[in-house]
Amino acid sequence: xxxxxxxxxxxxxxxxxxxHGTVETPVFMNVGxxxxxxxxxxxxxxREIKTQVELSNTYHLHVRPGDEVIKxxxxxxxxxxxxxxxxxxxxxxxxxxxxxxxxxxxxGVHFHSHIDGRKIFMGPEESMQIQSNLASTIAMAFDxxxxxxKDRDYIERSVARTARWLRRCxxxxxxxxxxxxxxxxxxxxxxxxxxxxLENVRIAHAQEIAELDLPGYAIGGLAVGESHEEMYRIxxxxxxxxxxxxxxxxxxxxxxxxxxxAVDRGVDFFDCVYxxxxxxxxxxxxxxxxxNLFNAKYELDERPIEEGCGCPVCRKYSRAYxxxxxxxxxxxxxxxxxxxxxxxxxxxxxxxxxxxxxxRYKEYKKQKLEGMSLSQK
Length: 377
Hints:
Blueprint: E1 2-8, E2 11-18, E3 21-25, E4 27-31, H1 43-48, E5 54-57, H2 58-63, H3 67-72, H4 76-80, E6 86-89, H5 92-98, E7 102-105, E8 108-112, E9 119-122, H6 124-134, E10 138-140, H7 152-177, E11 188-193, H8 199-210, E12 216-219, H9 228-238, E13 248-250, H10 256-263, E14 269-271, H11 274-280, E15 283-286, E16 289-292, H12 319-327, H13 331-357, H14 361-372
Parallel strand pairs: 4-5, 4-14, 5-6, 6-10, 10-11, 11-12, 12-13, 13-14
Antiparallel strand pairs: 1-2, 2-3, 7-8, 8-9, 15-16
Helix pairs in contact: 6-7, 7-8, 8-9, 11-13, 12-13, 13-14
Protein name: Queuine tRNA-ribosyltransferase
Active site: 89, 271
Region (RNA binding): 252-258, 276-280
């Protein structure tokens, strides 16, 4: 259940109650694709750095270790020792981006595993069955994510099929949740809006799926090559047509600036690999811009990554030490950078929630963007 607590312009401050706990929104979901945050980050670490929701991937867990294996072990929460909400994405994006040769039909998609080449079929029912086996808190609908470079005719046909698939996802989830051996009979389904960068297609699809009265709605198919300006234009167009009283999730986004702009347009769920991926390459976020800790100027720098930061890394370790670890290819260096970056994102979401509550979001956004654009000393 989603409760809208406050609005500041279009920005929403909400509370989403689930069987695995309450989520304060806007929220950044920390990405653990294969049931682990890349960079040797444990679920104990996630609790310490203020993570509210962990996100795992249906496709990756289906091919390894197998969703049936995870079900036998009690579901994803028990498997990875995490008692807070988990969102699983449907596998659709990975099927269309990783699988190489594939054949799309009305019933679903035939493709080859990117790991061992074996043939796999996935459609709406299969995606729901896998996610039910995983027993996540929130399951995402199975959809096609058409490239924005596709022509209008292709995108319109793709979106129509995605809408039909969503109805099948909903029916299958209701069936699965009623079964006696289902681990999480309270699993929720979020629908996904598609349509490339065609405003009228996006709006029509949003209106159609809003009628299904799902627990939440996502905007997919953005941050996949179009410009930031195009993404913001689509958000301006489509968010008003998604239910205000349900969470709105912008999939795969993004940079701190992307998040700040999207919150201002009414989005309240986010996920992105940037903080972990950048961290593993020694790039860390601060309120004064991004640092590359491989740079020689940090060799003797005894300061933490960011002075005043309360993360477990900044409380103890210097830039100089972390740079040494990175240069020596010690995993600890990557781990420290990932922990700091996720803490930075989670803390920024706390600040966003407070700013909306206090009716000063525009001012906060302006100051945050100006600070992060500064060059580092």
